[in-house]
Every structure is written in structure tokens, then in C-alpha cells.
Amino acid sequence: MKKQYIQCRLITVTAVLAAFYAPYVWAHHPVSAKFDTTQSVTLTGRVTEVDWANPHTHIFMSVEDKSGAVKNWAIELESPIELEWGGWRPDTLAIGAVITVEGPLARNGTGQIWANSIIKEDGNSVFDLPDNILESQLGSRVEGPAPRWPDGHPRLGAEPGQSGYWSVPSQHSLVESGVSVAMDKHGILADIEDAANVAPFQDWARDLYVMRQQNFMKDDPLFLYCIPPGGPRMFQVPYGVQFLEQPIHQRVTVLMGGGNSNWRLIHLDGREQIGQVTGNDNNPLFFGRGLGRWEGDSFVVDSNGFNESFWFSNGGLPHTSQLHLIERFTRVDLNTLQYEVTIDDPGAYTREWKSAWTLLWVANKDLPDHYCQDNRP
Amino acid sequence: MLVPLLAVLGACSQSDESTTEQTESAVTQTTVVSADGPPRLEDGTVNLGPPPGSMGFWTANNGRLVNDPNNYEAARREMNSRVNIEDAPLQPWTLALTNYRQDTFIASEPYTRCKPAGGPRQIMSPYGFEIVQMPEMERVYILTVSNAMSYRTIYMDGREHPAEILRPTYLGHSIGHWEGDTLVIDTVGFSERSWTNRDGLPTTDKLHLTERLTRSSLNDMDYTFTIDDPGAYTAPWTSGFGVEWNADQEVFEYMCQENNISPAAMVGEGRLSIIVP
After folding, report:
1. What ipTM, to 2 d.p.?
2. Does any CB of chain A come closer than 8 Å to the CB of residue B43?
3. In this structure, is residue B26 part of a structural domain?
4. What is the CATH code of the structural domain delimited by A7-126?
5. Could you tell me the CA-to-CA distances from A86 to A130, A133, B162 in Å, in that order?
């Protein structure tokens, strides 16, 4: 049963508890970015349409008020990918079905409501998801050592004849290693006073981070414009990543399951990713330019040449075009990929710092099919 | 209103100028490629990508589903299709909608709104595409530069299409196999949110598409497709065009949504604020 906690109501009581009671959704942004989660309403109406598309499923319903006037509402839900994982279907609700929806309203006053719960006339709840919907994709796991290429390097992908991808990040936002602060699944701090501890920010960067946090990250370009999650954020998105290794071309192609299903190339022969129509001069990229190499069992990617038009982390930590990343991917066993990133951005931080998390192997599946722009104008 | 729209369409329609440059150290081909045939992988399968040690990618050579004199680009671009529109088995509504789209300079084209598309639209993608063969995985991927810089997955492991397509997608569900030196791709499950071609010819979710890619040499590949869409056509029909190799260049990063101007011209002011996820 989906929790119907109202995040900010609890914040007025105890800040720490809010971290645990945020609505668990694996959206690409917190519900509070668009909806006022301090309040909740209940509406009853008839289903007029189901838009089963990414990034958010919408159910349209007609609600009649006391005077008999009918207003059309849009109910927002998680991605159809997750709903399907939870066993729901586009025809779960019939057109004309009467439903009761409870949830917060859109901040901008349009007729939109986020569904904390949807109850049919017969009293049954629909479209609820377990808290561990991502983990549910892992299936029953086989243990084992990391599979290897003939030359001894660990395989970043599946063994021959098999499929799989990496997901379920153990950490959902960027925080400096060794720092412990309470935050929810989207990286929203339980206590804004902890902001300065998250990373060695320069003052302007810390202030920008605080502002983004206090605005529920509503200005996140991933959320607003489907701008891609470059940098470490690529490895914290819910729908996973896949590495296509081509030894004959000395390159690794990284595929994303979320966002707009982007790809990026990492060469191991000293060449950088080429950028945009205008070539490479003065042309910073969203995914930067990465050079890859193996160091023992770790695949190391050294990247620079990032633009500033995206957010490089969940949680809203800033970066500048001076960003230089060193990412280390180490598959320690069949099911576990360790990711460690060194952030060297003298434009936003006072020194280099690191963060690290793990990704888990989702066996026998391919990346989910997701386009952030699907049902956007 | 039309001026900014045309400017955007112009930006998205470049197909013959290659503006990428190789600025990195020179990459030379270290594999000898037979003048008589395509490059091959070690096991003899045709290599649809670059020969090892080299770079390159594919662009359609002004490819179109049909040659259509009403096409909004007909005055300034050669149409390189094997079928003329008067010979394609269009239903009356199909032709009417195509003409309407051409008359409005395909203003409603989803591609301009950064929606990806599969099938012929993916192959016609102006800035080109690369085919990534992963034989150990039994997959082939097609990466595009524009087309939302996304990728198509082609399952080569012998599986069937799902019995039920719960959620039609932009690229559909593709399964593939080799017939000699031809990669044959079979796709169903297209969403009607995208156009599977650049010409405004409608396809419906009943489309069952068969594509055949045959690389005859390093530089040339034939793309032949059969559209079996009883929703839009009175019979299955086949067309195709040539695809050419751009040696010593590589697929590059491209973000359609970075500065996609003139949304109001595309969708109208009223649409913009209704649903913003």
C-alpha cells in the first residue's frame, strides 16, 4: 500500500522524521517540486482518459461540484514502467469508472493532483506500489565472482549469452564520503542546517544548493526540460545503466535506461567524445569528454569539458565548467559494481572530494524503455 | 510565426553537410578491407560498424519513404526513394493527412519536439547513426545523434515479440536475424506519438515493419523496408534508399532539448502549461 505521508506536515513536528516519510516514488524529481505536499485533498470523479506514458502516467477525471459544474482534473502517478513492474496495466481503470483520489495539489493552481491513493467504488485500491519497487526487479539472485574477459578484466556487462544492467544505487544523492546527513530518496535534506556539511562548498555554491533545496528542486532542468543527467547523476538514476564493451574498437558505450535513453562513448585509446554539430572548440558537453583506461580491476574514466546547463547530481549540488571528474567502476562480484567519483571543481568547491556508492546487477533484463519527453509538449 | 518555425525545421533538417571534424590524433585503418565486399567481423559476419582502428558512421543519402512532389522540401532537396507517392498504396485519409502535413511544413512533427522515432525515421536521422553489434550479448544497437541521442535495441536471441504490447513505444520492439549478409529486423509495437518517417506519411500502431540492411562495401549500405500497416495503407509495400558511410568521423553528442526554441509555434501557447511533469 502506497504511503500517504505528507512530508512537510511532519517537518513542522520533527525534521528528522520527514526523511523517512516522504512519498516513496522513483520519479526523476520529488513530488514536492510540483505539488504542495503540506496539504492534501480528496476528490471523487469519473475516469475520462488514461495517458499511459513517461515520465508520468496521467489519469484524467471529471469531478462534479455541488453546483453541478464539471471540472476536468489530471491525476499524476509514477512512470508506467514502475506501474507495470507492480503488475498494473493501462486498462486497470475503465473509462467511466468512479474513483476517489487523495493527494497534494499542483502548486501552480492548475487542476492537477498527485495520487497518494486511488480507490475504486468497490473499495479496492489501484496503482499502489511497494516501497521496494526498484529492488523487485533484481529477482532471485545468483551469487558469484565477477565474470571476466579473456584478458582478465572484469566484465562490466553480462556474460556471453546473457543480459542485464545496473541499477538500485545504494545512495541517491551526492554527499562527501564519510559525511552522514539525513536526506530523503531525492536528496532533500531533512535539516537544511546540514547543507554546509554535504560537500566542501564554496560559499556561493553552498547558498545555491540551499536555495535549490528550499525550492524542492523545482528548477531542476532534468525535471523541467528533460536535460540529461550528466556526471555522477547518470549513475544514480532509477532506470539504470548498461555498459557495451567493444574491445575491437577500444571503447565502452554507456546506455541509460532513464532520461531520454541517451548514450555516451568512452574511448580507451586516448580519443575523446566528439561534441555537437559545431565540433570541439569551445563546445562543452552534457556528458563531458571522458577518457577510459583500466587500472587493475577498475575501469577509470577521466572526464572534463562539461557545460553548466545541467545538474550533475541528484539533490541539486552545483558544478561549473571547470568540473573534472575521475570515476572508478569496479565490479567486485557478479552482482555488485562499486562506483567511486572524485570531484575536482575549483569553481564550486574548496578542494577535491569523493563520493561512492554501489549499483546492483539486474540479471536477465534489458534497460527499461523510457523517454523523459514522452508525454511532454 | 512561421519564420522561427522554419528556422527550427531548418536546423533539424540538415542531412548533407557533415560538420564534425576529427580534431583528435589521426586514426588510421589498420585492417585491410576488401574492395569487393563489406568489412567483416572475425567470425565472418558483416561488420556494420567501423573496421577496427577506424571511425565512421552512417547517413541516409537523402533517403525518403517516397518521392513526393508535394513534400515541403521537394524544391530544395533531391528525394532518393525507390517509390513515388502515386504508386504507394495509401488509403484516402493517409494521403489527405500527408498533404495537410506538407502544407503546414510538418509543423506537428514530433521529431522537432525531440521525440525519438524508430524505423525509417531513425535511419533518415540527419546527423547520422551508428550500428553497434554485440554478438556475445545477442543484441544489435542503433545509436543516433539526433533523434533524442537515443538508441534502439534489436534482440538477436531468437525471441518472439511479446504476446501483448502494454505500452507502444517510439522505437517499437525489434527482433533481428541474419539472412546471409543482410540484417533483417522485424518490429511491432509502435506508438502513434511518433512518425516513423520524415515525410509526414502516417503510420498507425498496427504497423508491422520489416527492414533489411545490406552493407555491400565499406561505403555503401542498402536500406530496404516493407511497411505492413493495414491502418494506413491498403496493402503492404516496399521501398528503400541508400545509406552511406562517413569515414574518419564519429557520432557526436547532440541534445535536441538544449535550446529547442519556438515551442509555442509548435504546440501553441495554450498547450504549454497544461501538463509539465
Report:
1. 0.88
2. no
3. no
4. 2.40.50.140
5. 8, 7, 18
**How do the domains of chain A map onto residue ranges?**
7-126, 164-363
Does residue B42 sit within a domain? no
Domain of B85 in residue numbering reads as 2-14+47-261
Domain count, chain B: 1
Cβ of residue B193 closer than 8 Å to a chain A Cβ? yes
Q: Is residue B33 part of a domain?
A: no
The rounded distance, in Å, linking the Cα atoms of A52 and A91 is 9
CA distance A103 to chain B (A): 16
Q: Is A92 on the interface with B (CB under 8 A)?
A: no
What pTM, to 2 d.p., does this model score?
0.87
Query: What's the mean per-residue pLDDT of chain B?
Result: 82
Does the distance separating the beta carbons of A157 and B137 come in below 8 Å? yes
Half-sphere exposure for A55 (CA within 13 Å, toward CB): 27
Has residue B269 been placed in a domain? Answer: no
Residue A281, pLDDT score: 65
Q: Residue B113's pLDDT band (boundaries 50, 70, 90)?
A: confident
Reported as a single tens digit per residue, the pLDDT across B1-32 is 333 333 333 333 333 333 333 333 333 333 44
Three-class HEC string of A95-159: CCCEEEEEECEECCCCCEEECCEEEECCCCEECCCCCCCCHHHHCCCCCCCCCECCCCCECCCCC
A284 to chain B: closest CA residue: B253
